[in-house]
Amino acid sequence: MSPAVHQAIIERSTAIVIRMRILSLVLLLAVAACFTGGRSGPLVIAEPREDVLVDSAMLMADIGALAADSMQGRATGTEGNAMARRYILSAFQRSGVQPFGNSFERPFTFTSRRDSTEISGVNVVGWVAGETSDKVILVTAHYDHVGVRNGEIYNGADDNASGSAALLAMIQHFAYAMPHHTIVFAALDAEEMGLQGARAFVNDPPFDLAAISVVVNMDMLSRSESGELYVAGTSHYPQLAQYVDSVAALTSIKLTKGHDTPNPTPRDDWTNQSDHGAFHAKGIPFLYFGVEDHPGYHKPTDDVSDITPGFYIRAASAVIMAVEVLDRNLARL
């Protein structure tokens, strides 16, 4: 384990007590307020504090560790991927979230589309119990990337160390700020090989898929000079649009609905471009948070040095706000 990764783990461990105190403040600030309209009006978070929803130092330490050269690009089935999984697993274990059964790890195998070899992957899945458990929010982010090509490491800082680190930040938030409904967190493997981890999840779920009210998927949150984060899914599931609009009114970044229809071109449709696609195929509503493609996309230049830190912290906070709003409104969906 590299010194940077070891130091990040130490920082995560020693920050938990402080984090608990910060999140107690968040609970007081995140009171429910209603727009007009009775059951049709969405609950929102009053006076959002983006500076306390996410521990920015821990978020940056996590993305830095997951996108380090020592992770060798995190390609599924490699030692670098296993190192990334151990880092994520350690965060799950320290956070207080619960596994399904005896382990957070859910191994699976699939056949490579390139050469028909069998490849092994591992999803990391845990959950936080809500006050009621009849409905579930599933939050996902893939932790794999494309590995080493022609001697160059593809670190995948934005794709998708950013989503994975944001997932860990969300776990820390909800582990100490009890949600109304059960939230399941899944760090998925082998997205880059055809959404294989997500497909394994829906084909062998750790609980009844019918309990899932909505999937929130994060894939590429950290690199945007324009300050714009897209949310796909509301064209397919228009009942979710009002909740996205609630968050858009609260966050300091530009939160834009779209990229979920083949207009103006099929290339602009992200419906099946990340792990949410496997759940959409089962008719499960989704919201997908991600930025536009950039010059570092699937290039060895997707490094932490090129992300937009201020935007990334606010983007991670916006997704936490979205899950908060959904959690307070699942009965309305």
Explain how this protein is built.
This protein is α/β, with parallel strands linked by helices. Helices cover 35% and strands 21% of the residues. It has 10 helices and 12 strands. Strands 3-4-8-5-9-12-10-11 form an 8-stranded mixed β-sheet, with helices on both faces. It has a two-stranded antiparallel ribbon with strand order 1-2. It has a two-stranded antiparallel sheet with strand order 6-7. Strand 1 and strand 2 (43-45) form a beta hairpin.
Secondary structure elements and pairings:
Elements: H1 3-14, H2 16-29, E1 32-34, E2 43-45, H3 50-53, H4 56-66, H5 79-95, E3 105-111, E4 118-128, E5 132-142, E6 147-149, E7 152-154, H6 157-176, E8 181-188, H7 196-203, E9 212-218, E10 228-232, H8 241-248, E11 254-257, H9 276-280, E12 286-290, H10 309-327
Parallel strand pairs: 5-8, 5-9, 9-12, 10-11
Antiparallel strand pairs: 1-2, 3-4, 4-8, 6-7, 10-12
Key words describing this protein structure:
10 helices; two-stranded antiparallel sheet; globular; alpha/beta; 12 strands; 333 residues
- Please state the average pLDDT score: 87
**Which percent bin holds the helix content?**
25-40%
Q: Which regions have little confidence, pLDDT < 50, spanning 5+ residues?
A: 13-48
Could you tell me the strand content as a percent range?
15-25%
Q: Give the termini separation.
A: 45 Å
